[in-house]
Specification:
By secondary structure, this protein is an alpha+beta fold. It is built from twelve helices and twelve strands.
């Protein structure tokens, strides 16, 4: 029974953890907007050495403006420039990334303001030194006071803090709340030192499709436009110097990885179920040997081979079913305890529990038939002579 308990409980716990993780990732990606499309610079190669992701300077502000004209598939566009800066506020300082963008950024990213306000189109036009902080950056620089209305300094320029973004759930190794958001013109002219905004290099161009149904057409239109602007001849075998990825694609990739990992772990747990079934078979074989005289007495008073067969099959089924039921109880408890201590999302559903219990019964039946057949085929006279 122990093998069945461990195997059944492990299968249920692994599926509960896997389903919970998949649902958590889906919720996090969904919170960013399922109609969000990201355009990033591609990698480049020099002397056979490939750059890091987003290493090529292939996207410009003019590209972003051109994509914004793709109506009606595209609802809004938020180009982004950035870099890492040492930021100081009185005695406190931190090194974090800054995002230079437009007023479309909160809407495209589905990221609301928590305190204060976001910068305006006038701030973008005038390159005003105003900043909006993420919650992590705000608490680091201003641990004992409200960040709105304060002043920070980065790149030798003083910025007025006009707002703090709402806390965003972390969905990767980087904390999305550890950031400073400024007008794109301010970042370009005051921090990055670029001469012309139109030709400046964009780190990312975020596109908001009009609806989920328009994601495919918006992606195709943006790809065709950028290939024309960058003089890329796909028919001649030239590769795009940019990458386009939608949130739906991210969700699909993440789901595939989770499913593969869950399948791998379930296979490991299934081995425990098989080992438990072999254990049941061995125990039943021992039971047949120990109860040979009992079998002989039953057959001598009229029990048929079918009666003996059913007796031992039912015993094997009861053993495996008992282990399965205990495993169905232990599995969710183990998964919930894991979720409690790891703060992970757990999703316990009925189908895996019913499946695990059914499999445990099937294993008991499969591995119990052979001992039962041996018991039913014993000769009653030889069985009665057994000690």
């Amino acid at each position: 029974m122990l093998g069945i308990i461990i195997g059944t409980g492990a299968v249920i716990a692994v599926l509960a953890i896997g389903d919970g993780s998949q649902a958590d990732v889906a919720n996090r990606i969904g919170s960013l907007g399922t109609n969000l499309i990201s355009v990033n610079p591609s990698r480049f190669s020099i002397g056979g050495v490939r750059s890091a992701a987003n290493g090529a300077a292939t996207l410009t502000y003019a590209d972003a403006e051109a994509i914004g004209e793709l109506k009606p598939q595209v609802a809004a566009v938020a180009p982004q420039v950035g870099g890492n800066f040492q930021i100081t506020a009185g005695p406190n300082n931190t090194n974090t990334g800054i995002v230079g963008t437009t007023t479309s950024y909160p809407g495209v990213q589905k990221w609301n303001i928590g305190e204060g306000s976001f910068f305006s189109d006038d701030d973008v036009q005038a390159s005003n030194p105003v900043a909006v902080l993420g919650t992590t950056t705000a608490s680091t620089l201003f641990p004992d006071s409200d960040a709105v209305g304060q002043t920070i300094k980065m790149g030798g320029v003083s910025f007025a803090v006009i707002g703090v973004m709402a806390d965003r759930t972390q969905s990767g190794p980087q904390d999305p709340n550890d950031t400073v958001i400024v007008p794109i013109t301010t970042a370009h002219f005051r921090l990055l030192g670029g001469p012309s905004l139109d030709t400046s290099t964009m780190r990312t161009i975020s596109i908001e499709a009009r609806s989920e149904a328009d994601i495919a057409s918006a992606t195709t239109a943006a790809q065709t436009l950028l290939e024309q602007r960058h003089n890329i001849n796909v028919n001649a075998g030239q590769a795009d110097d940019f990458q386009i990825l939608s949130q739906a694609q991210l969700l699909q990739v993440s789901s595939g990885v989770r499913q593969t990992l869950t399948l791998f772990l379930v296979c490991i747990a299934a081995i425990s179920l098989i080992v438990g079934g072999i254990g049941i078979m061995n125990i039943m074989l021992v039971s047949v040997t120990e109860r040979t005289r009992e079998i002989g007495v039953r057959k001598a008073v009229g029990a048929s081979a079918r009666d003996i067969l059913m007796q031992f099959v039912i015993e094997a089924l009861l053993l495996s079913l008992s282990g399965g039921i205990i495993g169905v109880i232990v599995g969710p408890i183990g998964a919930l305890l894991y979720g409690h201590f790891s703060k992970a999302t757990i999703q316990v559903t009925a189908p895996p529990m019913l499946l695990a219990a059914g499999v445990s019964m099937a294993i008991g039946l499969f591995f119990g038939i052979y001992p039962a057949q041996r018991a039913s085929q014993l000769d009653p006279i030889q069985a009665l002579r057994a000690e």
